[in-house]
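Repro:
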Amino acid sequence: MLPALPPYAATLGLVANPDGSLTMPFQPSLIGAPGRLHGGALAGLLELAALRAVLAALEPGATAKPINVTVDYLREGRMEDTHARASITRLGRRVANVRAEAWQDSPERLVVAARLNILLDRPAPAAR
């Protein structure tokens, strides 16, 4: 089951899609430089996509927080809807490694990508 989006997602106007991806509909408040999406909005979209993927893979009651994020801006974000997805490359006991990608017109033409290390806090196993 996919976790609910945190309050910051509303600031970006994010929409959760049934396939687990997120969509950030264009809105003027997302403009950074004239005619382009703000890089922070794009990075926020990727971070939330990554956290959502990790939390969906963990047991109930677990929490996750980014400890390292590297963002690669590959082309300018145009003033249109942006979509993101994340995939877990390694899910350890304490740390998850995740790749997140965002695109606009085609998933083959990425706008931005990120690698994240996410610290996991899992509930203690129930005593027998």
